[in-house]
Amino acid sequence: MPKIGMKAIRQAQLINATLTVIDRVGLANASLALIAKEAGVSTGIVSHYFGDKNGLLEACMMQILSDLYTALRQQRRKAGPGAEDQVRAIIDGNFDVSQIAAPVLKTWLVFWAESLYQPNLNRLQRINDRRLYSNLAAQYRRALPIRQAREAASSMAALLDGLWLRLTLAPQPMEQGLEQARMLCYKNLALWLNSAPTP
Fold first, then answer.
1. What is the CATH number for 24?
2. In this predicted model, what pLDDT tens digit does every residue of 52-102 receive, in sequence order?
3. How many degrees, rounded to 5, is the angle at CA 14 between CA 108 and CA 28?
4. Could you tell me if 90 and 162 lie in one domain?
């Protein structure tokens, strides 16, 4: 009889092993056998919990997205109630420590690429994109006319994604470019808010 809570423990163990293996050898070479070896379990256990590598990658992305949403909630709770403070909190949440470890960064890249071909990953990507855009648009709408608010939200979402891509592919450690990335986002925010029509 399985121990109570063993499923959650095994799933977390396998997700962490998958992130580690993708970081080390890339998705194409991240076989179930390598992942099982990294986790210290049999290949059959991986198949039992996730079915195949695609199921495991989906579970990894769901965990990374869950960590991202937790970071965003925490940042927004700490921030002031104003639109500028809330957008800054969204920026800071996207650059949270849970998102900048090398295995997570590389898995994000894999996720973006694979979402073009796998319907389940594409669905997760669309949900994440819409959530980011709608949260940004709602905050900008408090300070800008609706059209400008939508443009500002699209601009910030594109900037966040672009900076993530550049930081992930850069040769220097992520931490070195992180503060500069935040500052660029803050400047973009200020430009949009300064463009607000005077009452």
1. 1.10.10.60
2. 888 999 999 999 999 999 999 999 999 999 999 999 999 999 998 888 877
3. 50
4. yes
For residue 50, what are its two tokens?
């996730």
Q: How far is CA 116 from CA 65, 112, 124, 143, 185, in A?
A: 18, 7, 11, 35, 27
pTM value is 0.88
- Name which of 104, 124, 101, 105 is nearest 114 in CA terms: 124
- The DSSP result for 147-173, as a single string, is HHHHHHHHHHHHHHHHHHHHHHHSSS-
Please give the DSSP secondary-structure letter assigned to residue 105: H
Q: Report which of 96, 6, 86, 19 is spatially closest to residue 45, judged by C-alpha positions.
A: 6
